[in-house]
Amino acid sequence: MPRRRPRDRLTLSPDWQRWIADNLLAGAPHDEIIATLLGHGVPRAEVDAQIAAITASPAYVAAQRHLRAARRLELVARLHRQLDATRARPRAVERCAGLDAEAFFERYYATNTPVVLTDVVTAWAAFGRWTPAYLKERFGDVEVMAAMGRASDPDYDMHTPALSRPVALGDFVDRVLAAGESNDLYLVANNRNSDRAALRPLFDEVTLPAGLLDPARLAGSTALWFGPGGTVTPLHHDTSNIVFGNLYGEKRFLLVAPWETALLQSTRGVYSLVDPERPDLDRFPAFARANVRDVVLAPGEMLFIPVGWWHHVRALSVSINLAFTNFARDNAYDWFRPGER
Question: What pTM value is reported for the model?
Answer without folding.
Answer: 0.89
